[in-house]
Specification:
The protein has 456 residues and is an alpha/beta fold. The chain has helices at 40-43, 48-58, 74-77, 100-106, 125-141, 156-168, 183-191, 203-213, 228-233, 235-243, 260-274, 294-299, 327-336, 346-357, 365-380, 401-408, 430-445, and strands at residues 5-9, 17-19, 34-38, 96-98, 110-115, 148-152, 172-177, 195-199, 219-221, 251-255, 283-289, 340-344, 388-393.
Length: 456
């Protein structure tokens, strides 16, 4: 069977189509964003059970490139790429962690954390970047004049781009907001040989520059307004369902910044529904930091209007975005999936992250935003105690160890430190150690949540 995909305008009144190998990010006719569309008729030649069996048979296999959780669904992702041009580090297949103890503390019977940060560069961005860089390699092999791939980033996108381009032998360029990302994130593109430029602005400023820069067709845009990224990221939906033996959770909660991941989640579920792999939709919740909350403010008005905001400094630096590129795509997905948008303050996200860590996680502040929103919606009755809930953890906590250090040493402004675990200096004798242990073990056993925080 020959499968095809192409770029198509997301505006239903336009619907203009472009070859997948075209260097294009917006519709030339109406300037709307594009999405990758697939020949669903050809895909529907096989039923849901056939696709489930195919995907399950490829899962973690050594057959190139199908052991990747992305390229194991190649027919649904980007069939235009020849196997020899796939640039993969066997991304995906990340752990779906049963957060049993955290669930018991907060009163949620079936809580799961999808650990997308357990990936090669430590974030979910790998899932989209493998598709984009592979397509660039395919285009170069066909004679395209692309000489480099560029992105604006708050850290994770640049890390993924730099790594995959290094593996492919393609130059990468990253524009970062100076002084606004962690050292762990800054060193990743530097180490992978990316041309790293730190601009005296925020992410939105970097994005404005890279959009102008990539008007030159020899520099290819790698940000999520390039819908090739979404094709890889939609496999998160498929992975979750596959890991639940092809059952759909009730609620999926995801942190949102530039908002490409919200539409990606929706697209994955929609394809499974249309092709008969699943029979219902989950509810999608987008969690925003209160200091960077344009989608939340629009949600309060029924999405009738959208106004960019000047994103304030937030611990959740990767979603410190005031003018998200994928706003329209995200809204469309949320409307189809009975979506909710909620926000979390700095105090809420820091304490939610710390509480989760006390139950065995080591999560990033953006996951803290999603967890805080989960706590709030549970308290509001919008999530039921019996719901099967999946929280998307977007990056590995090791990228944000300074945030965690500052929390436990009580150095964060405007945070109450409900779960700070400060190291204690004592005498080097057995009695001192015993006295400390008697006190501290009792405190450890009494960990619980203060619900008053989530009722404000």
């Amino acid at each position: 069977m020959s499968y095809k995909c192409w770029f198509q305008c997301i505006d239903p009144e336009c619907g203009e189509k472009y070859p997948i190998s075209t260097v294009i990010y917006r519709c030339k006719k109406c300037d709307s964003l594009l999405e990758v569309s697939h020949d669903m008729g050809a895909l529907a030649e096989h039923d849901g059970p056939w696709w489930r069996e195919l995907f399950s048979g490829r899962y973690k296999s050594s057959s190139w490139p199908y052991g990747s959780a992305v390229w194991g669904k190649k027919e649904w992702i980007c069939p235009a790429v020849d196997d020899k041009n796939v640039v993969s580090m066997y991304e995906g297949d990340s752990n779906l962690f049963w957060a049993e103890r955290l669930g018991k503390i907060i009163g949620l019977e079936d809580l799961w954390i999808k650990l997308c940060g357990n990936s090669h560069t430590g974030s979910f961005k790998d899932l989209g970047m493998t598709v984009l860089v592979s397509m660039v390699k395919q285009m170069i092999s066909e004679g395209s004049g692309i000489r480099a791939v560029a992105c604006a980033s708050t850290g994770d996108t640049s890390a993924a781009l730099a790594s995959y381009c290094a593996a492919a032998g393609i130059p990468s360029v990253v524009l970062l907001p100076a002084g606004k990302i962690s050292a762990a994130q800054l060193i990743q593109p530097i180490s992978n040989g990316s041309i790293t430029l730190c601009l005296d602005t925020d992410f939105d400023g970097c994005m404005a520059v890279v959009k102008e820069l990539t008007k030159e067709n020899w520099i290819y845009l790698a940000n999520s307004m390039n819908s090739l990224r979404i094709e890889g990221q939609k496999t998160v939906s498929i992975e979750i369902v596959q890991q639940f033996d092809w059952n759909v959770p009730d609620v999926v909660v995801i942190p949102g910044g530039n908002l490409g991941n919200v539409s990606a989640l929706g697209k994955g579920f929609e394809m499974m529904l249309e092709l008969g792999l699943i029979s219902k939709r989950p509810r999608i919740v987008c969690a925003q930091a209160a200091r960077a909350n344009p989608l939340y403010l629009s949600y309060l008005k029924g999405f009738e209007e959208f106004k960019p905001v000047e994103a304030g400094k937030t611990l959740a630096s990767a979603i410190q975005i005031g003018n998200p590129v994928s706003f329209n795509k995200a809204v469309a997905a949320l409307r189809r999936f009975n979506g909710i948008v909620e926000q979390a303050t700095e105090d809420e996200l820091a304490n939610a992250s710390a509480l989760a860590d006390l139950t065995g996680l080591y999560n990033c502040p953006h996951t803290g935003v999603a967890l805080a929103v989960t706590f709030k919606l549970l308290r509001q009755g919008k999530i039921r105690p019996s719901d099967k809930v999946v929280v998307i953890s977007t990056a590995h906590g090791l990228k944000f160890s300074q945030f965690k250090t500052d929390y436990h040493l009580r150095r964060l402004e405007g945070v109450t430190f409900d779960y700070a675990n400060q190291p204690e200096e004592i005498g080097a004798d057995l009695d001192s150690v015993k006295r400390a242990l008697d006190r501290r073990i009792g405190e450890w056993q009494s960990v619980e949540i203060d619900w008053s925080k989530w009722e404000r």
